[in-house]
Amino acid sequence: xxxxxxxxxxxxxxxxxxxxxxxxxxxxxxxxxxxxxxxxxxxxxxxxxxxxxxxxxxxxxxxxxxxxxxxxxxxxxxxxxxxxxxx
Length: 87
Prior knowledge:
This protein has one domain (8-75). It is an all-alpha fold. It has two helices and no strands.
């Protein structure tokens, strides 16, 4: 059993941040040269993909919970004799 639900949007945001950190850490160490403006397309693509993944995850969870609620018919009516008395 999982401790919490899986959030793919947050995972993608974290991977985007780690990618940017790795690129600029390599630039700082002198392994390669990364342009300063290279962060913009990587960040925009990562955040856009994360937003889309988070929205899709929300839609899937919402539909799954709606299906489980509509399939649950275990509750008995308040009165089976036809009277409208509240119990």
